[in-house]
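FAQ

Q: What does a record look like?
A: Structure on top, sequence underneath. For example:
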């Protein structure tokens, strides 16, 4: 599903009159979650899931076929863990 299709789905599911309103709602949600994660705050939506920012440790390794090695830095990465309600709805849709 691409963005345009998702906007239409949100419009019908949310009862928005126009696609512009639905797109504004999606944009507000994504910006709010992003802002919270930048502040390293978790966002918990009961029944849907949890968004969090986690530290991914750097690693070192060797490039196959050569003697070159590499290292990566520690960085913050977004993480989503699905809630029980979402898992149950998806399992029932099989």
């Amino acid at each position: 599903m691409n963005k345009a299709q998702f906007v239409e789905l949100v419009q019908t599911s949310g009862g928005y009159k126009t696609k512009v309103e639905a797109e504004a709602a999606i944009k507000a949600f994504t910006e709010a979650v992003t802002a919270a994660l930048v502040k390293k705050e978790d966002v918990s939506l009961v029944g849907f899931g949890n968004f969090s920012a986690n530290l991914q440790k750097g690693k070192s390794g060797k490039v196959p076929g050569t003697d070159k090695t590499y290292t990566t830095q520690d960085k913050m990465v977004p993480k989503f863990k699905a809630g029980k309600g979402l898992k149950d709805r998806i399992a029932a849709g099989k």
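Q: Is there anything notable about this one?
A: The beta strands are 43-45, 49-56, 60-62, 69-71, 75-82.
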